[in-house]
Specification:
With about 500 residues, the protein is α+β, with helices and mostly antiparallel strands. Helices cover about 20% and strands about 30% of the residues. It has helices at about 1-15, 20-30, 60-75, 225-230, 260-275, 285-295, 300-310, 360-365, 460-465, and strands at about 40-45, 80-85, 85-90, 115-120, 125-130, 140, 170, 175-180, 185-190, 190-195, 205-210, 240-245, 250-255, 315-320, 325-335, 340-350, 355, 375, 385, 395, 400-405, 410-415, 415, 420-425, 430-435, 435-440, 470-475, 480-485, 490-495. Strands 1, 4, 5, 6, 7, 8, 9, 10, 11, 12, 13, 14, 28 and 29 form a 14-stranded mixed β-sheet that branches. The protein has a five-stranded mixed β-sheet with strand order 21-20-15-16-27. Strands 18-19-25-24 form a four-stranded antiparallel β-sheet, covered by helices on one side.
Length: about 500
Amino acid sequence: MLLLTYLLLVLLPVLFLSRRTHASSLQILQSLDDVPVLHLTISRRGGPFESLAPGEEIANLTHLGEELKKVEDRFSLTRREVKGNKLVRKAKAKGVGGNEVGVLMGEVAGVGKWYTKISMGEPPQEIEVDLDMLTSDFFVLTTTSRMGSKYDDYFSKTNRHSNNHPFPRCSLPTDTFHFPTLRTSAPLAFAHCRPSRSSSATLGASGSVLGLAPSLHLSQIDSPTLLSQLLDKRIIQRPIFSIMLINGQEGVLSIGGTSAGAVEIVIQRTKDELDRLAPPDNAHETPDNILSKRSSHSLAAPMQGRESAWQEGWRWSKVQGAEGWWQILLQGVWVDGSKVLKNQPVVVDINTPFILAPPLAAKAFYASVSGSLQLPVPHDNFYIFPCLNPPLADFEFDNWRFPAMQGGKGADWFGMPGGRFSLGRYKEGSGYCVGAIVQTAMGVKHGGANGEEGKNVKGAGELAGNGMRDVWVIGEGFFRGVGAVFDFKEQRLGFRTW
């Protein structure tokens, strides 16, 4: 834990202190790659996920229930169908999620979504691009509203119009995209969508969505993906991307490679300093100097060798289930050193703020947590546990156990009662905390996010057909201290601890 804490303290200023530091740090990161890799900083819109009541340490159960409902709604936007000899996921035909016809999956400029920034056009226009692991399309949305980040083709000298319409109210122009960390620009095609002025969607925010799902069966737009164009133009060489979260609101997205090289450098530096058990002679050096020296001198050749064999050091799981999402097999769930569940299907989604478990799995998990209780209706999707005794949970992938939002024993760990596994204290003066593994009714015919188990609740029929009946969702919390790489070609997902 000490190594991880130091690592975060070093990487955070390296990547985010200022525009100058940000640019030079990403260039240093780039120097560690043996092939071109597009490194982009990512942020969580609205800041870290807030589970507490304002100004208190008590969990806001009403807010948490609303956030759970939003997550479940996102997973209800698709249906399954048989295509050839396999089962695939497709967007619902008559308007996504019951919305008007012609609405694309992927919320633009949503609060709580992870996003990056990309410049396009000439002169450059910076737009916010939301990451979405449940869709596969890349599109830019321009509305009449002043909200969000707007791309205006009229002011771009390099925009090339097209008569193609890959989706209702969407054209397929080409414009120049700028990638400063790679010192290159390239013309790329993209869907540019404008809602009808009579549509309520035109009052929403402008912005963009980058779909990162592994299957084109989820595509609604007849246009090339961003990743395929980057590969075709040799801007990147590997059909992969990786995500590393530094904290609850900042991280790095690497397209075409990973940021593992920089992390290993800082970890090695940390170990060297701890071994000396004394302030280093070069304690005045900046994080940029540390990275640049390690990348240009003694570690240059070994690091390039490790980066060339980039698959090493990751624990790999093959994508399975209906083609569409990053769904893999969770081999085991461990609580305080004991394996309590095995062979659980899971979907990985960075924009889910919880770890979601189906009802039977949630009950089995908390049955293994001493003193835990399920809350009564209407909050029975949540469980509580003694704040002074938070569980140590591990998820097993590829025969390797990864920590799942672990904290320490004690009442206050990193500022949260009950540790990182906690969503906050249950009530004022209570010794119980709300657990971060949350029960979901997705895919269960009888039951819903409001906890009305045993009744035909509104919307339960829609959820019942999405194939999520026994499936977990591994959300944002798992990625803190765990890096992930997503391989489109081999249809696999890798994890490693930092």
